[in-house]
Specification:
By secondary structure, the chain is an alpha/beta fold. The protein is built from eleven helices and twelve strands. The protein folds into three domains: 238 residues, Nucleotidyltransferase, domain 5; 63 residues, no CATH class; 52 residues. The strands form three sheets. A seven-stranded mixed sheet has the order 5-6-4-3-10-12-11. A three-stranded mixed sheet has the order 7-9-8, covered by helices on one side. A hairpin with an 8-residue loop joins strand 1 and strand 2. The relative contact order is 0.11. It comes from Sphaerodactylus townsendi. This is Ectonucleoside triphosphate diphosphohydrolase 7.
């Protein structure tokens, strides 16, 4: 906490010295995971145009708002899934109120549901949204691998102690890891002890071993299995998966975009079953995405199994769900939570009355006038240049004529002054 306070104090002191804009202490804050999720949700839906309430034939959802008898029909918003190295986050709209099975569940739901208004003022109730946001620390791809290794090594240590074995003590007796490619030799350090591991490349067994990790561990405050999750209408919903959801599907499997669970499972199983030497050869031949490195090639088998378990066992997405898209960019741009924060913080500013639909015609008209004006200016410049050249040539012509006339007069004067041979001067 004291590090956060020190950083904020530095910002408040130094930003006004470096930048010439209004900045006060209230403009800097440390946001929560819930706020970050809400801002990310606002950002992606804004970019996709889901806050435009023009009615269309498809992609509509019925929303029940507090204090209104009739449900509101508006565009269906998209949910987001984001898995980093350390944490996992999900955010999606809950269009209707849900019944709670217990008071404890209702209390848990209140801490995970965010109600906010994106309208220009409080009276614009058509812009009310209720979003479920939850952040799971320790469920990111890298932390999940660490937790898995700890579980695997603890089980091996217990087995060795009870059976008197030496599994993992040397390369000749390695621990067999189904989540690493076939034949990969690895060394893991834990609590001052060195463990030797060899990959088996069994994707199905790997996925089964990862299932207990969905419940979290003693240090986790949440779990995918026991925490409250707002209901999702999978028949009328759409999700975008970012970060690890995209890397797992695209970097080596080249399946980014629309997600199809059976196709992803087959590709992941085929990848895991390949030998480590073949995978490294493919990597050296640059057959994978330019973003893929050896770390990705090494842990792709594990991370694909973890992503599958999180999606279908943790969040209970059906395996035939067709509304998930994995992406890194949206309309060729990276969508960050900062965009949503700006939109939310500035929604009450006077600029709210300037709608994009009203700006475009004026902008187009201005471009047309500018285009015509520039053409007239171009032709005027050409005319001025040609006129200047004409005047210059005319002046040269006059100077030349004057020089010729002067030369003629000089010759006549010489003819009168200088006598011809045999002639007296003046005769």
């Amino acid at each position: 906490m004291w590090q956060q306070a020190a950083i904020l104090e530095d910002l408040v002191r130094d930003v006004p010295l470096e930048f010439d804009f209004l900045f006060s202490e209230s403009h800097a804050e440390v946001i929560s995971g819930k706020q970050e999720g809400v801002y990310a949700w606002i950002g992606i839906n804004f970019v996709l145009g889901r806050f435009d309430h023009k009615e269309e034939e498809d992609a509509l959802v019925s929303v029940t708002l507090a204090g209104q008898e009739e449900p509101l029909l508006r565009k269906r918003t998209v949910g987001i899934l984001d898995m980093g190295g350390a944490s996992l986050q999900i955010a999606y709209e809950v269009p209707s109120t849900a019944a709670f099975s217990s008071l404890q569940q209702e209390r848990a739901a209140k801490s995970l549901l965010a109600d906010f208004n994106l309208g220009c003022d409080a009276q614009h109730t058509n812009h009310l949204y209720r979003v479920y946001v939850n952040t799971f620390l320790g469920f990111g791809g890298n932390f999940a691998r660490q937790r898995y290794e700890e579980l695997m090594l603890n089980q091996t240590s217990t087995h060795n102690r009870l059976q008197g074995d030496q599994n993992g003590a040397n390369p000749q007796l390695p621990i067999l890891d189904p989540c690493l490619p076939v034949g990969l030799e690895d060394v893991v350090e834990q609590v001052g002890q060195t463990w030797h591991v060899r990959g088996q490349g069994d994707w199905q067994t790997c996925a089964e071993r990862l299932f207990p990790l969905l419940a979290g561990d003693n240090s986790s405050q949440t779990s995918l299995g026991n925490t409250y999750q707002a209901p999702i209408n999978f028949a009328n919903s759409e999700f975008y998966g970012f970060s690890e959801f995209y890397y797992c599907t695209e970097d080596v499997l080249r399946l980014g975009g629309p997600y199809h669970a059976p196709t992803f499972m087959r590709a992941a199983q085929d990848y895991c079953s390949m030998s480590w030497s073949s995978l490294t050869q493919r990597f050296n031949d640059k057959l994978y995405s330019l973003h893929a490195d050896l770390h990705r090639v090494k842990y792709q088998c594990f991370k694909s199994a973890w992503m599958h378990q999180v999606l279908h066992k943790g969040f209970n997405f059906p395996t035939d769900y067709s509304g998930l898209y994995t992406a890194q960019l949206v309309y060729d741009r990276e969508v960050q939570w900062t965009l949503g924060a700006i939109l939310y913080k500035t929604r009450f500013l006077p600029l709210r009355d300037i709608h994009p639909e009203g700006i475009r015609p004026a902008h187009s008209s201005w471009l047309h006038l500018s285009f015509v004006y520039n053409h007239y200016l171009f032709f005027a410049c050409i005319l001025v240049v040609m006129l200047a050249i004409g005047l210059y040539l005319l002046r040269l012509h006059r100077i030349h004529r004057q020089q010729l006339r002067s030369a003629s007069l000089d010759l006549l004067w010489l003819a009168e002054v200088v006598p011809l041979p045999g002639q007296e001067p003046g005769s």
